[in-house]
Predict the 3D structure of the following.
Amino acid sequence: MRGASWQQGGRNIVITDIRDLQVLAKRRLPRTVYTYFENGGYEEETLRRNRADLEAFALMPRILNDVTNRTLAADLAGFEARMPVALAPVGACGLAYPNGEVEAAKAARDFGVPFCLSTLSISSIEDVAKGTQAPFWFQLYLMKDKGVGEALVQRAKDADVSTLVISMDLHVRSQRHGEQKRGLGAPPHIGFSNIWDGLSHPGWLLSMIHSRRRTFGNLVGLVKDAKSVPHLTEWLEGQFDPTLGVKDIEWARLVWPGKILVKGVLHPQDAKDCIAHGADGIIVSNHGGRQVDGAISTISVLPEIVDAVNGRGQVLVDSGIRSGVDVLKMMARGADGCLVGRAYVYGLSAMGGPGVKKALDMLYDELDQNMALSGATDIRKLPPDLLVNHVEFLLQSGGGQGGGASLR
């Protein structure tokens, strides 16, 4: 893979992987904004576990296979994707780059993968529809005010959204200590440190002049007397619904004619119930480590959920994915596809739409090359012995003496 050079602040960086985009993002963004995208819930145990468990699984390549003809194409909720990756819903992407959601959606469209817009986006549903002229997914937070949900669903229909993604893991909002320390509570506290933080990043600050919107675009006009981010954030704090359950999936099935994916599933029984009550698929997710702290990693629980669904719907997965190798591991564990959040937000934060494209290019090349180097040719038909848990493999093989056993 050839690295592309990028100038930032007089420094020349050769971009070879997502971590390079993360470095560029951290330099360009104010610390407050970077913290919002980067931090996890509470002590960030789940955030760390997602990465640690992905790294605990190891590929066991087969080298005697002809890998001349390879395919990464995958069906993701009816979208014929160039690779089994979609851009996950990320709130307030417009803080990373002016009109950020539109920029990311265009990059996804041009690359050939789905883009999912968050309810809490800066750009609105209509902005993305007009900017892309292509189908996209919409992620819906179900709130106490049912009228807001009904209005958002109707707007999604009018915008020809193809897939509705219902997030079911936000009965209450978690504490994110990094955000609290930067004043991002409800409502946010804007103090001298926040103001200086923005002023000390003039490249970001000046670019934001070109933002079409400066608040949550999907909620403007739906929430009375809430025209600014502080007021909307305060309103949202009282809107999280502790009664979320299968009744909400049934409601969505009644009002939405297209595909429905339920996001936030970590238990096999929940996966069964989602499918039984009208979902077309589920997204195994711990919200990128931003909700429950101490939760199981998605790669750990993935095979059990795949077995529970038993082919009655698609099983997608997110949380912790930072490379094409991570995608390969998730697919080897049984996923039908993956969603990436931070991985593309780093690119968006660093250089807008071209940065998102760069992230997708790198994910594609890493996935294609490592699939080939592992002896596989079709991302949808990976051999069951491709992946092993490295720690368990060593234990079962007597510390390296003799053979081991794969988990899937």
Observations:
- The domain at 4-396 is CATH 3.20.20.70 (TIM Barrel).
- The CA atoms of residues 251 and 261 lie 13 Å apart.
- The first strand starts at residue 4 and ends at 8.
- The chain has 17 helices and 14 strands.
